[in-house]
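User: Run a structure prediction on this.
Assistant: Running it now.
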Amino acid sequence: MTLSFVSEHRILLQNVSWQLLETLGAELGETRSTRITYYKGQLEIMTPRWKHEVCHRLIDRCIQTILEELELDLWLGGATMLQRSHMSVAKEPDSCYYIQNEKVIRGKNELDLTRDPSPDLVLDVDITNSSNINQLILYADLDIPEVWRYGQFKLRFYQLNHGAYVECEKSPLFDFLSPKNVEEYLQNCETKGLTFAIRELRKWVNTVL
């Protein structure tokens, strides 16, 4: 096994077996702050810092607010480990969401992607853009229909299309919503506060419905 430091935020391990990944996950437990990414023998351990967690929480709140205004049911998967052992891929996203498949997942105590559907939406924050693992290839292997990626003050929407992601001007789940709309919400959070930003977001959603 070889070890290299990708940045002060991430540690990358090479030539890691799936068995070692499972052992490490069990040893670290579920109450930690780190995020694990595994792709075909590469294991990345990332510790979020302040800016990462702030952006994650604000965008997560944006998604939940929009769904509330649309009166759509939602099941929150959080940063649960999404994995497919036969493809040697595993990922703890910042947040994942069941919307179209909410009824299928509702009330389940465990998630098993060999029998359960993948989350409808995943939120992935990478402020430093320092990961050595291609996150979109990884998410494609996990069959995630829609991915939101935020980094370096820019948000991008991606839709899975025949096994690869295509960047979208509007969210496939919310056809009225562009990355710019979410970035404006984030700007309001930073300059005028979260309560103001949420209130304005609710007003805006109701004007475009």
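Helices lie at 18-28, 50-70, 102-105, 135-141, 179-192, 194-208.
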